[in-house]
């Protein structure tokens, strides 16, 4: 049934709550470990979605008490240079989490760089070891955006088991891991992508629709089943009023909100949840590998 007033899944509020919990955890652990947790972020060139991420991440690290180590490389940085930096960070005892901003410029091989990251410092959960654990439903570092989607669904007690979930987008960063996590929670999952035929009909089947495409407002009302839960992962910078740029998701929020039961806004939805999960992964690595007496 269609709900006339959709409930907003408030990622910003939940992310703030998670960050407060992390702040307390860090304060307690730091007195035992003798240093704060450290997160290193490698960014190459300029990508607007990455720039938003980096900014919010740095702010959040400061709030929680994580030392944030940003390395911004020019767009023509070499594979060897980046691999060398990652190896140094693997050895650096002050660093608990390493993240390489994606996408990387064309001339770089992102997969082999992700493989350079020590799996225990893989704050983004993109190393093959951590992805393999996800496939097997073993515990391990989990990709931040998909983990953020799942945490937000959980917070609002949205039933997943037995529901039809459609994920649009099949990237290793978002689409594939989120589909696996929904499957782990016993959803019946369909993955749609650029070759999917009859995308509209596929989407209209979804009880839970996750859009991770990168196409501003492509999910219009006619693609959504009334009463569906709509999760908008997209972060797109578009020109708004008076030539000012603004962020929009992959979902046409206003019209879809009229028929959805729950919907995430952009900004204020999955973006802040991603940041919270990144900090959470970093703190978890910090705890696990520096407090041998607790598990
Ligand atoms: N909120 C957050 O924290 C985050 C937001 N993002 C945002 O999410 C979006 C997706 O990111 P990411 O997964 O990295 O992007 P990618 O570009 O890696 O993947 C996009 C996916 O969308 C599919 N696709 C493209 N066009 C269509 C179409 N017309 N119909 C159906 N499927 C289509 C592609 O299909 P195919 O595989 O066939 O090419 C691909 O699988 C971006 O806006 C990004 O900025 C990303 C990470 C975190
Ligand atoms: N290895 C890797 N992992 C990623 O998770 C990753 C990445 N690369 N590359 C770029 C994309 C994009 N991304 C965002 C995360 C948070 C916000 C975010 O905080 N968004 C706020 C924006 C608020 C504002 O500043 O206006 C919001 O949606 O409310 C945005 C974008 C992570 N990504
Ligand atoms: Mg968002």
UniProtKB/TrEMBL annotation:
Gene Ontology BP term (one): L-histidine biosynthetic process
GO terms for MF: methenyltetrahydrofolate cyclohydrolase activity; methylenetetrahydrofolate dehydrogenase (NADP+) activity
Pathway stated in the Swiss-Prot or TrEMBL entry: One-carbon metabolism; tetrahydrofolate interconversion
One CC-aspect GO term: cytosol
Keywords: Amino-acid biosynthesis, Histidine biosynthesis, Hydrolase, Methionine biosynthesis, Multifunctional enzyme, NADP, One-carbon metabolism, Oxidoreductase, Purine biosynthesis
Residues of the Tetrahydrofolate dehydrogenase/cyclohydrolase NAD(P)-binding domain: 143-288
Reaction it catalyzes: (6R)-5,10-methylene-5,6,7,8-tetrahydrofolate + NADP(+) = (6R)-5,10-methenyltetrahydrofolate + NADPH; (6R)-5,10-methenyltetrahydrofolate + H2O = (6R)-10-formyltetrahydrofolate + H(+)
Residues reported to bind NADP(+): 169-171, 235
Domain of life according to the entry: Bacteria
EC number: 1.5.1.5, 3.5.4.9
Segments forming domain Tetrahydrofolate dehydrogenase/cyclohydrolase catalytic: 9-124
Pfam families, per the entry: THF_DHG_CYH, THF_DHG_CYH_C
Keyword Oxidoreductase: yes
CDD domains in the cross-refs: NAD_bind_m-THF_DH_Cyclohyd (cd01080)
Function of the protein: Catalyzes the oxidation of 5,10-methylenetetrahydrofolate to 5,10-methenyltetrahydrofolate and then the hydrolysis of 5,10-methenyltetrahydrofolate to 10-formyltetrahydrofolate.
Assembly: Homodimer.
Family listed: Belongs to the tetrahydrofolate dehydrogenase/cyclohydrolase family.
NCBIfam families: PRK10792.1 (NF008058), PRK14186.1 (NF010783)
Protein name: Bifunctional protein FolD
UniProt organism field: Waterburya agarophytonicola KI4
């Amino acid at each position: 049934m269609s709900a006339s007033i959709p409930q907003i899944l408030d990622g910003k509020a939940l992310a703030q709550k998670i960050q407060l919990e992390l702040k307390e955890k860090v304060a307690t652990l730091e007195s035992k470990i003798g240093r704060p947790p450290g997160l290193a972020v490698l960014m190459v060139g300029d990508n607007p979605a990455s720039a938003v991420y980096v900014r919010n991440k740095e702010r959040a690290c400061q709030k929680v008490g994580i030392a944030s180590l940003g390395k911004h490389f020019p767009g023509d940085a070499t594979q060897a240079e980046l691999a060398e930096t990652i190896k140094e960070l693997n050895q650096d005892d002050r660093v608990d989490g390493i993240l390489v901003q994606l996408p990387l410029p064309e001339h770089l091989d992102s997969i082999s760089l992700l493989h350079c990251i020590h799996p225990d410092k893989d704050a983004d959960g993109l190393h093959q070891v951590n992805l393999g654990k996800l496939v097997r439903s073993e515990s391990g570092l989990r990709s931040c955006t998909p983990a953020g989607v799942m945490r937000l669904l959980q917070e609002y007690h949205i039933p997943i088991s037995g529901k039809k979930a459609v994920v649009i987008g099949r990237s290793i960063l978002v689409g594939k891991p989120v589909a696996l996590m929904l499957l782990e929670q016993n959803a019946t999952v369909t993955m749609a992508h650029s070759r999917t035929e009859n995308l509209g009909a596929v989407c209209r089947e979804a009880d839970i629709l996750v859009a991770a495409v990168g196409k501003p407002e492509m999910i219009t009302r006619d693609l959504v089943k009334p009463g569906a839960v709509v999760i908008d992962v997209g972060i797109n910078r578009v020109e708004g009023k008076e030539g000012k740029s603004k962020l929009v998701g992959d979902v046409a929020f206003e019209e879809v909100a009229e028929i959805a039961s729950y919907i995430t806004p952009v900004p204020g939805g999955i973006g802040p949840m991603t940041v919270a999960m990144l900090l959470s992964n970093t703190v978890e690595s910090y705890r696990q590998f520096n407090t041998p007496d607790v598990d």
